[in-house]
Amino acid sequence: MYNKTVTVANEVGLHARPATYLIQKANEYKCGLWIEEGERRVNAKSLLGVLSLGVVQGTEINIVGDGVDEQEAVDELVRLVQSNFNE
């Protein structure tokens, strides 16, 4: 298992468009991927799961990967969040 913590900095947090970008990127990898916020953990490949977290600007999330390409996947998702989802 591999994980990293990142702060969501874009103005609107993980609303529909950034969540879609995140899910599309997550689905490029074979490993299991999760997003943790506080006590909650959701599948990073599920739009409903990601949106259900209600992540707003300034929220710290933990991205967790488990599988063959976990490190590459987690690092790439962290880069996406840090880039403000290219918005």
How much of the sequence lies in strands comes to 25-35%
Large-scale geometry: globular
Cα(first) to Cα(last) distance is: 30 Å
Integer average pLDDT: 95
Q: From N to C, what is the helix and strand string? A: EHEEHEH
**Number of helical elements:** 3
Query: What gyration radius follows from the Cα positions, in whole Å?
Result: 11 Å
Main β sheet profile: 4 strands, antiparallel
Structural class: alpha+beta
Total number of beta strands: 4
Q: Percentage of helical residues?
A: 25-40%
Strand order of the largest sheet: 1-4-2-3
Uncertain ranges: none
Could you describe the 3D structure shown?
It is a single chain. The model has no long low-confidence stretch (mean pLDDT 95). The chain is globular. A 4-stranded antiparallel sheet has the order 1-4-2-3. By secondary structure, the chain is an alpha+beta fold. The chain has helices spanning 16-26, 47-52, 70-82, and strands at 2-7, 32-37, 40-43, 60-66. Helix 1 runs antiparallel to helix 3. The protein contains 3 helices and 4 strands; from the N terminus they run E-H-E-E-H-E-H.
